[in-house]
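Hi again,

Forgot to attach this to my earlier email, sorry! This is the prediction with NAP bound. I've pasted everything inline since the attachment limit keeps bouncing my files.
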Amino acid sequence: MRRLFPLSAESPVESPVESPAGAPTGSAARPLGGPSPVEDREWTLEELAEAYAYPDLLPGPDAGPGPEAAPGRPAGVWLRANMVSSLDGAAHHDGRSQPLSSAADMRIFGVLRGLADAVVVGAETVRQEGYRPARAREPFAARRAAEGRPPVPAIAVISASLDLDFSLPLFTEPLVPTVVLTGAHAPAERLAAARAAGAEVVLAGEGTRVDPARVVAALAERGLTRLLTEGGPKLLGQFAAAGVLDELCLSLAPLVTAGDAARIINGPGLMEPERFTLASVLEDAGFLFTRYRRLRQEGNNRL
Ligand SMILES: NC(=O)c1ccc[n+]([C@@H]2O[C@H](COP(=O)([O-])OP(=O)(O)OC[C@H]3O[C@@H](n4cnc5c(N)ncnc54)[C@H](OP(=O)(O)O)[C@@H]3O)[C@@H](O)[C@H]2O)c1
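Structure tokens for the complex follow:
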């Protein structure tokens, strides 16, 4: 894996020089000691965790803007999305994202979970991808314990129908209770089934559906402020429309699928395209791991 952006002024340029025998000898400008940031090598989980730290965890002048309160939204909460797309914009192949993924993508997927307080996911993704409870991963479990946080993020499932199999390990065997977010008028017997399975039910909407902005606020009220959504595209479309999506970690897979799979964000178009700024790009085996942050909008205090 290599960092393609941002590169500091001190970043060496990997320009192979010829040895007298004609064999490449690597960088002409490698600093003494320590790996080059553009060197192609496997990154440790700690390095990836540092690269993907939530903004409030990044001290110092290079931290960039921290989370701020938008109207009706608690301060200090940050909603990041992690999605993978083919070159031609498909968010899945035959209903699964796995064919678009790679070992490095799954490594970053695990790191993002390791950093998060809650993983917010739409019910269709839970059903299609066969979601299981989050598992404790080193070194995150130790780091989280030191911070007084549970070993894994809570999985927070968004559903109106509650057409979910509550006998699955996702609900019966998680290390921390799975949260089910739904509307106040969700089917009563399904609500009872969710609670009986051990899920924490949160009502975040007046009808059967949730209000996406209330999802963020309700989780923040429970101390879950480092939020990660893994989609799917329909849920992400609602977060984007509600203006609560702070960051998009987009993995671009070097694959073309054609077909009619949804894009990573699906739903009614926004009134105005929302502007994001590039925060970082990593590369591994032709995959680009990009991270974009939403730009502060004039007239409000969103980032
Ligand atoms: N490329 C990627 O990184 C990626 C990531 C995730 C998923 N995917 C793919 O995306 C597909 C699934 O995504 P999707 O867009 O079809 O569905 P989705 O966003 O995962 O889930 C949609 C479901 O979430 C619930 N929901 C959404 N908004 C709601 C609201 N406001 N209130 C209450 N419930 C709400 C509803 O569940 P109920 O029907 O239960 O009411 C709805 O049917 C799969 O093929 C998956 O493989 C790809």
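The two ends are 29 Å apart (CA to CA). The longest strand covers residues 78-86.

That should be everything now.

G.
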